[in-house]
Design goal:
By secondary structure, the protein is of the alpha/beta class. Helices cover about 35% and strands about 15% of the residues. The protein is elongated, with a radius of gyration of 29 Å.
């Protein structure tokens, strides 16, 4: 049985992998739900509010989408109209999966609030935007904060800025993250997740951009309360994030393995498990007659020993048995009785 303290929220990050197509976005909700994810996440924005026409694409985006169009032009093409999100949230309710979104600007923040959302996801790129943070912090909703490209001091500043705006620190979960797509293993630095937790006294999780599912599974085993991972319907689809995302069967496998991690971690109490208790009598030993013993004979190292099975007196009581009298005649290997 899963321990409730080990519960990991798996966020299937749709991002912009719907390519601005509402029907693809709905299909992604289907896939996330069928994979067993807890939450499906989208990115909400009015691109011109957060991107100047001079903003440059990241190298990975240039590699996957080319350099003919600007960053702004790419995002304009990929984003969904704001009126799409009411329908997507309703569809999530129908498919029994949580809806979550990252707002990239003030209008998008207000839209999510109007939708009744009580949780915001702050992306890595916004953690130094004072006015953005103050607006989100003023709602005092649950916050998931990604921290790619940031130092511990910057994360501390971000949390402080949110708190000064009215945000309760207990409602913040900080996700360790690296923003390179895909992230090289040597840059993952999962131990930083524990550093964030210990130094800043916050709940932590991990937002993954590596290839495959090994790293998020490891993060879950290290105590992440949230795992976020990009997914796609097909890695061969056009778009900046598709190649570094999981396909449906990979997403399901990741969710299944994280659920196994929840079981594996247990409750931390060292005791025999239900499944192994039956092995105690087989694997442990009992005190038995080393040779034939007559009633009344003094039991000593020379006439008793410890052998399997463990259904008699445990040799843990050896010193209490030594020096006592045999209460009956014993044949060799017979269990000694009190």
């Amino acid at each position: 049985m899963n321990n409730v303290e080990n519960k990991v929220e798996v966020i299937a990050e749709a991002g912009v992998n719907h390519n601005g197509d509402f029907n693809i976005a709905k299909k992604m909700i289907d896939v996330a739900s069928e994979a067993g994810a807890d939450t499906v996440k989208f990115q909400v924005s009015i691109p011109s509010l957060g991107l100047s026409r001079f903003a440059e694409k990241a190298d990975y985006a240039k590699n996957t989408t080319g350099e003919d169009e600007s960053f702004l032009e790419m995002c304009e093409k990929l984003h969904l109209p704001l009126n799409s999100y009411t329908k997507l949230k309703d569809y999530c309710i129908k498919k029994n999966i949580n809806f979550l979104a990252t707002p990239f600007d003030d209008v998008s923040i207000e839209l999510l609030d109007e939708l009744g959302e009580k949780r915001f996801k702050i992306p890595s790129g916004e953690i130094t935007d004072t006015s953005y943070l103050r607006k989100i912090g003023s709602y005092n909703y649950e916050i998931i904060l990604s921290t790619g490209m940031s130092s511990l001091d910057e994360i501390s500043w971000t949390i402080s800025t949110l708190e000064k705006a009215g945000q309760s620190k207990t409602k913040i979960t900080v996700l360790h993250c690296n923003t390179e797509y895909p992230t090289p293993y040597e840059d993952v630095n999962l131990k930083a997740m524990k550093t964030i937790k210990d130094k800043l006294k916050v709940k932590v999780g991990y937002s993954d951009h590596t290839l495959g599912i090994i790293v998020p599974i490891a993060a879950a085993a290290m105590g992440a309360s949230i795992i976020e991972k990009h997914f796609t319907l097909d890695k061969n689809m056009p778009g900046p994030d598709q190649a570094a995302s999981l396909e449906p069967h990979e997403l399901k496998l990741m969710v299944d393995e994280i659920r196994n991690v929840e079981k594996i971690l247990g409750d931390g109490i060292k005791k025999p498990s239900d499944s192994e208790s039956k092995n105690i009598k087989i694997a442990r030993k009992s005190i038995v007659a080393r040779v034939n013993i007559k009633k009344g004979e003094i039991l000593s190292d020379s006439n008793i020993t410890a052998k399997r099975p463990g259904s008699g007196i445990s040799p843990i009581y050896w010193d209490k048995i030594i020096g006592t009298k045999a209460i009956k005649d014993y044949e060799e290997d017979e269990l000694i009785q009190k």
